[in-house]
Each structure stands twice: as structure tokens, then as C-alpha cells.
């Protein structure tokens, strides 16, 4: 499983980071970045939870 990030859509709401801080972080510009280049299997459920809460649908799960 991978997470696809639409950087142009991200508005820095940080809800993804709040839901899954071990998966999502914010960079110096306040936009989302992935903590892991390759998502560990153990974090998949949390990654999905974080992607779901993004209010602008900037995160999507790729299987
Ligand atoms: S919740 Fe969405 S808009 Fe907010 S930082 Fe995460 S990806 Fe960006």
C-alpha cells in the first residue's frame, strides 16, 4: 500500500498529522509530507485513517 499526496491540493490543515503523526508530518511550509518513503505495513490502518480526515481530499490510498 502507498499513499498518494496531491501537494497542490494540501492546505496544511494538519488533520492527517493529528490522526496519524507516525505517517504524516508538515514541512517548513506547513504542507503535508510523508514520514516514511515506504509505508510500513503496521501503519497502514493509521495511514488510511489520516487520509480519510483530510478536508480537501489531498491524500489517497494506492494499492
Ligand atoms: S489534512 Fe489534508 S490539507 Fe491538511 S495537511 Fe493533511 S493533506 Fe494537507
Automatic annotation (TrEMBL):
The keyword Electron transport applies. GO terms for molecular function: 3 iron, 4 sulfur cluster binding; metal ion binding. It holds the Pfam family Fer4_15. Its cofactor is [3Fe-4S] cluster. InterPro entries: Fe-S_cluster_ET (IPR051269). The keyword Kinase does not apply. It comes from the Bacteria. Keywords: 3Fe-4S, Electron transport, Iron, Iron-sulfur, Metal-binding, Transport. This is Ferredoxin. It comes from uncultured Quadrisphaera sp.
Amino acid at each position: 500500500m502507498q499513499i498518494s499526496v496531491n501537494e497542490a491540493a494540501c492546505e496544511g490543515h494538519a488533520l492527517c498529522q493529528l490522526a496519524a503523526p507516525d505517517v504524516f508530518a508538515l514541512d517548513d511550509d506547513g504542507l503535508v509530507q510523508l514520514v516514511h518513503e515506504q509505508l510500513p505495513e503496521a501503519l497502514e490502518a493509521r495511514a488510511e485513517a489520516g487520509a480519510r480526515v483530510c478536508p480537501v481530499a489531498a491524500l489517497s490510498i494506492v494499492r
